[in-house]
């Protein structure tokens, strides 16, 4: 009796809070109709991004390149909110009970025996980004401008960040983010987004002359939503080279072809049922692909 009470109490104190998780089961709502795109296997971990005891989006994270593969989220309206940069405690030690993302300082404060150096073993740290080359910024995959309050603060985890060319981040990429937000504002249905980066072969923010954080070659973004007014599905994709301030727009299937070419997605769909877009047989191969950059 005594022990079962203890077990119950322990369960109350430590709820099922795995946050670096086996799959995205606990944060499926950020994928259109719960469809998780199938990715080429690698050193990837699934993060259900938790802040202030709530999930806000999902990230597939590459622990070798120390950048996200993609973040999946739903665009929201409202005024964005800032926070100091955070990290993922369970990427430091899976057994850490902290389910919430937190700043490196709070993590060190909570775990006095933790060597601060260990924080960056499987993820990027603030120190890495402070050493980024000139002309690069902390580029959000899931942008804080697409959310308000806690959901916006939750985007301030470095597991959602890549070294992104500053001009691209502040101009053309931001313009595209604003477009997506405009659609979310107009639309009464959720706008689902998948946004990712493709790592480079040898371009790094270095740590003591060793590879630290990969500087990706490309960024990409895909969207899918149902337009209630026109009663039709709207979808599309875009790519950008992380060296120029330019964005290339295309269809979902063209984006998928680009990702396959770069060994990103395994065969399959980015969104449930390809966001209900009729696929003309062979059309994407025959036509010129604007996203193939
Ligand atoms: C939805 O469809 C209507 C009618 O075609 C169009 O005017 C509107 O711009 C569309 N909204 C979005 C968010 O795509």
UniProtKB/TrEMBL annotation:
Residues forming the ENPP1-3/EXOG-like endonuclease/phosphodiesterase domain are 54-278
Q: Where is the composition biased (Basic and acidic residues)?
A: 118-137
Alphabetized, the UniProt keywords read: Signal
- The signal peptide, as residue positions, is 1-18
Q: Where is the DNA/RNA non-specific endonuclease/pyrophosphatase/phosphodiesterase domain?
A: 53-268
Which GO molecular-function terms appear in the entry? hydrolase activity; metal ion binding; nucleic acid binding
The family database entries (SUPFAM superfamilies) matched by this protein are listed as: His-Me finger endonucleases
Q: Which domain of life is it from?
A: Eukaryota
Matches recorded under Pfam families: Endonuclease_NS
Residue ranges of the region described as Disordered: 118-152
Report the PANTHER family cross-referenced here.
ENDONUCLEASE DOMAIN CONTAINING 1, ENDONUCLEASE DOMAIN-CONTAINING 1 PROTEIN ENDOD1
Name the UniProt record assigns to this protein: Endonuclease domain-containing 1 protein
Tell me what organism the protein belongs to: Maylandia zebra (zebra mbuna)
